[in-house]
Each structure stands twice: as C-alpha cells, then as structure tokens.
Amino acid sequence: MIESYLVDKMFKSANSLDELVTQDNKVADRWQKLVGFYANLSTDKMSQYYEEVSRQLRENGVTYNVFGDPEGMNRPWMLDPVPMVFSAEDWATIEKGLIQRAELLNLLLADIYGPRHLIKEGLIPFELIYNHKGFLRQADKIKLDGEHQLIQYAADMARGPDGKMWILRDRTDVPSGAGYTFENRAAMTRVFPNLIRENAVRKISSYYQTLKDTLVHLSSKGDNDDLRIVLLSPGPKDKTYFEHAYLSSFMGFTLAFGEDLAVNDGYVWLKTIKGLEKVDVIIRRVEDIFCDPMEFRNDSNLGVVGLMESIRQKKVIVVNPFGSRILENPGLMAFLPQLCEKLLGEELLLPSVATWWCGHDKEKQYVLENIQHLIIRKIYRGTDSQAMYGGEMTSAQLKQLSSDINRSPYLYVAQEMVEFSTTPSWINNRLEGRNAIFRSYIVADTENNTYNVMPGGLSRSSVEKDASLIISNQSGGLSKDTWVIGKKGEELVRPKTKLPEVSLRPETKNVLPSRTGEHLFWMGRYMERAACTVRLMRMVLKSYNEADEDIHIKENDALSTLSKSLTAITDTKPGFFDKTTLKDPEGELIALALDISKPGSLTNSIQAFLSNGYSIRDRLSLDTWRILDSISEESNRMRKMGTDLTQIYGGLDSMIIKLMAFYGLNIDNMTRAATWDLLNIGRFIESAISNCTLLGAMLGKPFERDTYKALMEGTLQCSESLVTYRYKYRSVLELKAVLDLLICNEDNPRSLIYQVLKIDKHLRNMPHQELDRGMGPVAKKLLGATTAIRLSDIDHLSTLNGAEGKYLNLLEFLDHISSLLMEISDMIFQIYFSNNRNRYHRIQTATLPEI
Amino acid sequence: MKYHITHITDYVYASPASMCHNIMVQFPKDHSFQKVEESSYSIEPNPSYATEHEDFFENKYLYFSVDKRHTKLSVVAESTVILDTPEWVALNPATTPPWEEVRDWLHSTEALNDIRQYYLESDHVPFEEGIKEYALVSFTPKRPIMEAMMDLNNRIFEDFDFTSGFTDISTPLSVVFESRKGVCQDFAHFSLACLRSIGLSARYVSGYIETLPPPGKPRLVGADASHAWIALFIPGHDWVEFDATNNLLVDDKHVRVAVGRDFADITPLKGIVYGVGNQKMIVSVDVEPLTD
Q1: ipTM above 0.90, yes or no
Q2: Could you point out which of A137, A229, A808, A836 has its C-alpha 20 to 30 Å from the C-alpha of A848?
Q3: Class in CATH terms, B2-83+267-290
Q4: How far is B25 from chain A (nearest CA, A)?
Q5: Predicted structure pTM score
Q6: What is the pLDDT of residues A685-712, one digit of tens each?
Q7: What is the interface size between A and B, counted as CB pairs within 8 Å?
C-alpha cells in the first residue's frame, strides 16, 4: 500500500516537501521501520487497522462536539492510523526551541502585567498590547508566586520549506487537546503495540504528571487531604467537553462548571451535596474574559462571580492566569526575534511564519501592496475574526479590508502564505499526502524551574487537499498520533514516567458537586419515567393494533382507559381525556412516542435522561457511557423511522431493553457512594409516583367484569408483576389481590411499599441524614408514607363508594401518598440542590446621571 | 470652594436576593487643586466582605459582597472636599503648543504608557465615521491645542442639545452624533472621540458639580447628580479639564472622583445579584457648599 505513495512523492510531485520522502528522494530514516511495515501490508489490512483504531476510540467514548453539526452532539473523534513522526535529533531541536519560546513568552507575560519596560522601551509596540482585548487591566500586577506565570502552553507548528519546524500559532489561554492526545496514544498502542515498541516511541505521560505536580506545588499546600483542584469547564456543549471530563477523572481533579462554584468571603467554594468546600486551584478551560461576569464580560454565564477578586486576594490559584491570552496576539511574532536577543541573549530557535504588524507605516504599506498573497488576521482572535486569505477575496472585499486596515492599522497582522510539508495520511482507503499541523504541549515544571515538553502531541491533517493553514477539528480535520522516535532503553532511565497517582482518598477528594447530584437524581427520575412510558405505551399500541375495527375506541372501555392512563402517566392532559383526540388517537400516540419537543413524550424523557447523563460524563463508567450512546442511537433511530405504529412498537421493545441495561450495569459498576444513592432516590421516587398514577388511572373506575379484568391484567403487566401474581394467586384476577401485590407486598420490587422503603434506605446514606441528629424532616415524611401504606386496609380500598360509583377510597389514598412523595422530592431538592439555583443578574447605574 | 457630598444609591429588588457582589467607584482622591478632607461609606445590609483597592487607572474602589437575604441594598458615600482654582484657568490658550506637535510626541516612546493609553479607542468611544472631520474643524493646522479645544468645547455645547432620557448607557455614540442629543456622559464620550480620533490623549472624568437652584428658590437637598467631563493632556500642564455640557473650562466647582477611558471603567456602582426578578435603582446626590 505504500508503493504508490512513494512513487508519487519521488517522481511525480518533485518540488513538494514531504515528511516521508527526503529531498533526494529517499525514505527518511525515521520512517524506515514504518515503511517496512506498510510495505508488507495490504490495503484491506490497513483498512482493518483503521477500523480498529476507530473502534477503540468509539468504545472509549472519545467525542468532539461540533457546533451546529447536523449529526448533533458528540461526533466521534477521528484518528489516522498513520502517525506523524519526528526523529530523535529533530525532536531535540524542537524541544529546545519550545522551552526557549515558553521561557520567552513567560518573561513577556510577567513584563506586560508588571513593569511594562518592554513597551516603554518600544521593544513591544504600545498599540499592540493596549489595543488588544486580551490585555486585562483588572489582572495588572497580579502574579503567581515564583518565576512562572505561563503554566500551560501549546504551539501549533508545521514544517516549512527550509525543513525546519515553524511556529504558526501560540496558544496560551486555554490550550486544548492534551486529553485527546492521550486517548490517541492509548488507541495506537492497542492496535500497533509492536510498531510502537520497535520504534522506541517516547512516552508522553511525564507531561501529565508534571502538570499535576506543578498545580500541587503552586498551591503551596502540598498534596494533602484537603487540597482541591478543580477543572473549570464551559459545560457539555463545549467542543472539547469530552476531554474536560476525561482529564478530570484521570488526573483526580473535580470537574466543575461556573455554576458549581461561588465566591464568598473572598474564597472560592465548590457547592457539594454536603455543603460548601473550599477550592485551592482552578485549571480553567473557560476563556479568561468569560470567567467572571463581575469584572469581565458581563454577559457570560460560564464564569464565577467574584473569581477575579479571589485571585487578587491570593485565595485561589487560577491556571493559566487571567490575561494570558495577550500572548496569542499574532502581532507579537514579528517582534519575538529581537525580544529573544534582548531578554535571553540568544537567537530565537524556532522561526515563526513571516509576520507583518500593520501598526507601523512601512509594514502597513507592504501589506497593502501585497495583500493578495497574504493571510490577514486581527490581533485578537475572536469568533468574528477568522483569518482572511487575500488571494481568495473579491476586489470589493479587498478594498473594504484595505480601508479597515487604514482606519485601525494596529488591529491587523498579515502573514506569509507558506507551502508546508505533506505527510502520509490514510484517506479514502489509500495513503495520500496531506498538510499536517502539529500541536505541542508544554507545561511549567515549577519545582525544577523549567518547562517540560510533551515528547509527542496532537497532529491534525486536512481531509481536503491544499487546505494548508486552515486545519482544525471544527472544520473536519483528522487527528494523528505523534511519534518521537527514541533510542531503545531510553524510557527506562527517564526519571518521571509514572502516571498521575490515583487518589487514595476518594471520600475527601471526590465529593459530589450539588449540580452533579442533581443530574444523577434527574437521570434516575427520567429513566424510570421513560421506562414506565414505554411499558404502558406498548400495551396501548398492542391493544390498539388488535382492536376490532368496527368497534370504536370510544366504546372500547379497556382501550380508552389504557389511553387515558397513558395521558396520566406522561402528564400530558388533556390528551386522551379530550374526546376528539380519543376518536382519532394516532396523532397523539405518535406525538407521545416521537415528538421530542412535547414535554412528557417518550423521546422527550429520553432526551432529558441523556442530557443529564452528558453533564456528568466524568462520573460514568465507560460501559455506562456506551449504553447511553446506544440509547441515544435508538431514540434517533425511532425518530427517523417515522410514524408507523408497528415500527414504533418495535422500537419500544429495544428501548426498554437498553434502559434496563443501563440500570443493570449501574448495579454492578457504580460505586456505592452518594452517586448511586441519588440515582436511586430519583428512580424510586419516580416509580412510586408512577405507580400511584397508574393504579388510579387504570383501576379507579369499575367496568363490566371482562373489561376490568383486562385492566387489572394490564396494570400488573405494566408493573411487571403479572408473573408474580399468577405464581402467587394462580390465575384468578381479584382487585384485592392486585392491590395487595402492588401496594402492600414488601417482597414485590414493584410494590409501592417496596419503593418507598428503598427511598428511605438510600436517603439514609446521604449526608445531613445522620440519625444522631434525630429524624430529619424528609425521614419523617417518609415514615408518614410508609406507615400510611402499611396501615392501609385493602378491604377498605377495594370498596366502591361515592356518588359516582368509583373506588374513591383507593383514589384518595393514592392521592395522599402521591402528594407526600412530591413533597419529599421538593425537600430533597431544598436540602441538596437548592444552592445550584444561582440565577443572577447585573445591576449597574444604567440610566445616566444627568446634569 | 469646599463641598460636602452625599451620594446615595438604593437598589430595591422585586424578590429577595440571596447574595450580591458589587464594585463601587465613589471615592474622591487628592488631586492637584483638590484635597479630600474626609471620605467614608456605609452599606446596608452590612457587607460580609469589603476590600478597598486601586484600579489600573489609579482610582480607589471598593469591592464588597453581601451574603444574607435582602430585598434592599443601600450604599452611601460621603466626602468633604476642598477645591482650588487650577493653574490652567490663568493659562493663555494661544501660548499652548500646536496640537500636531502634541500628537507626534504622544505617539513616540517618550510619552508614558499611562498617558498614551488615552488616545486609543475604547468601548464607549469608537471612532465613528465623521467624528474626526467634526474635530478637524476646530483643530485646524498648527492651531494651539488649548485654543482648538476651547473651540471644540463651544461647538459641542452649541450643536448638541442637552436632553435627558433620550440616551442610556447602551446608546451607541453614533446615535448621539446623529441626533445631537444626550446628557453629560454622551457629551464627554463624544468629546473624547473627537480628540482621540485625531491622535490626542484625553480621558473621562467622573465627579460632581453643584447645581444652582433657579433664582429666588431654595437649594433642594439631594437634587444634584453625578457629572462627567473630560481631561485633555497638554504637555507642561498635564491633564486640563473641559466640561462640554456647561461649555466651560473646569474651575473650582468640579469635584473629581475617578478617571478612565470611558464610563465603563469607572461606573459608580455595578453589581451582580443572585436572585430573580427586577430591581429598581434610586440615586440621590447632594452637593452642599460649605462656608468656612
């Protein structure tokens, strides 16, 4: 499979630069072993490897969110089975260059938010900094202790025409991708273990360990029991959310969103179900200007109100420091060579792409004259400032751009269009040369006062040809593992290759944020709601399909009661209580199954279940995650399949199995901690309430014997108790026996008493419920419910009474229990989740003072 | 002159708030020609956290938060300030340097960053089309900078109507420019846009001014308001202050509180409240002349 690639690169495209083939048409040394391997590989086999790599990633749940993607959230992460390769010598140069660049940028950052000598002396133009939105005046004169201000750094590179690696971009605010890099390597190691061993590919784990060590070191607290490191994520909709959840659980950080944190008394607190816990270090993935609506962008709801003040008071460490984005300013690239000479007394080792900052007249003139051959960027990278390619713009656009540049020249930077090297990529079942960008990860090693460069990183290549500089995963790039060829045995002598230590103190470190708790609680409730809806809907559809066409549904008491019960269970009145709907029920049935925007519909409940799940991804095991994925697929499949009732029926069957698999898996896998308890409290509250609703709706009104028997059977079936009933009572269906089994029988897992006792049992494991404090209000309510059920008199409940000839005693009893349960739900909410409700709004002197 | 200033801001919420965070910029500082004799604040409910800081522009501000349930927040700042007649009042505008000379100096590294930062655009002071041309009518070639400024001040006063309620803080400068209407903030922002668009350094000044009652009427307590004007950098005389709203060169009746690029840097009180519902803000300012 490699031959055609070699032929193509060696003979056909003579002038282009390729990673694999050297200028004198030989296979580069670093690729020898790989080429040897590929030479004996058929295309089919390589395709299999590709599938295998993809499967590994899929099974590990590695996803990437693409905003506005028709495929929705959680697009699978794509990995090329062909790596990007660096030789040991090449790497030594790169590593040295990156450390130098990190040190240089660090000095710039310290000066820009410190004495600003460099600006005063004109080594950095004044306008380049003071006009940049990333220059955060609120962060002025605020320093982390020690030499390092820039803690995490990533650089995007590509190989230029001179064969050297050139820097394309610096990422200093919230560099992403290190988590994906780890997953890429894991997948490659599983699929190509020998190839990795033979090439002595350098391990990348020291990076993660250094990051952890540095954060601990910065806290100056030591890794003792109460050190809390939080990873601040924008939330499940962020494109790299997978990585936030993944890195948190892998590094032992607590994953938090802005709403999970609060600043009080100058400290940052994590809201947990046990109460507030102090936060020492925040590693953020939220861009700095979104981090505190009080002092930065006041329309942000991703941040923590007062965080800047807490940093100012040195009550919390935030990494990277606010204001680091100033270094992403591409205009700085033009000045780095002189700055390096001045500050480090060395030549800048890694060249940047030729860059002209338009704030100086001469450069501006050059840019305006050569605009068709340049890439134009704004100095501040924002959503509204994509790179502009002079060559691809119309003359009207160019004119507009030129006038914009003339108006505010200091806001613009131009960069040279460069032909970068291609690298072999597995695309459409063949090797093709594609431009690739390599992102390297650098982290400060504060203990040893240096920077640590990950020997490897994340490479991305374009799927399209000639996409030279615009590769990103957002626009559909392909990722590559990056191999630095080492010397055999080298790994053994490297000092730090241990993986980040797994915390041995899960009780103290792994507390449950309130929001996470709430998501678990609602997952439990929605899972049960969905399951209950499926069971009843299956019965309705079955009897609807079997019903005699001559007899109208309105006259079919069993079917109309079933239908009304479905309305009651899904809480979608009027629904089938409306006579016109009951006359023509198909539309409502389809909506109840498939209309995701209809509250109470099956797909709506499933969606609510899933989105609660996505938000607590860091808490779910891999297998659980896979089941969520398959539930999501099933739900999408049902919606796509359309409105055929028979097909919907089929979908319901597989849905219930998957929902049960979720539950079954969690019995085995979820730690018996608060996570498990909250999921179950939610689940049993929902099932107990549904139980009351179902009994009332199905059996509250008497019918002629056969109909009522059918309804009793339906109720038992829906409660999955029909088999138990038959076993226990033979086949005679009696209301008393049915009620006994579904209300009072403490051995039947579907009975009301069993469900209420379960709530009680799980609640006892929760904080704030310790018995030594006496019985709490929730426990008292639960005792009330338990007692009412135990004292209930089945004879009394199964007596017809009242003017309307209903089972009024039964209905009243069920109403009573049901409202107790809802009160219990509210109380749990108050105790554990109420501090999640931090809706806030701004106040300020909005009307102008007048004089 | 000597003044006692009382600035009261009350927030009344529609439903109780559980917590609030605030930044308050209402503390006059000693200045050339201004001496603060006394300055204090009181906040109700009592803040659980309050710390004084100095911001990037060297203004004093208070960060505070209240962590108990409350439906009303009341913030009072009081100060006693003595004002002298500034040196620039006696200055002959014709003797100041040509404005281009000042501009060129500002754009060299000889000028300090702290001065240069005030010739850049800012959120409330964008260089809208036409503003530069408006400025150049006063800033004719080689004209002494202060003379040109007095002319600009006068033109703004003549061309723009003082209209309260027409603008609020979100009104873009272009609307003010087009409609030629606004209040003191708008006049100040517009002056700044004129000066900065031709490369001069000018900053926003917030503070207070005594309002005189109509002839024959008694002074009403609390009927004053906070005020805004601008300061232009003139080498040799530093920041010289002009008030376009009143068409005057600032004398000894303007109490300075804070300076910044524009209003957003020095909002007198801003905050975030945890809770739902609307709130009502009531501001009252009293500038009482003291005789001693």
Answers
A1: yes
A2: A137
A3: mainly beta
A4: 11
A5: 0.88
A6: 999 999 999 999 999 999 999 999 999 9
A7: 131
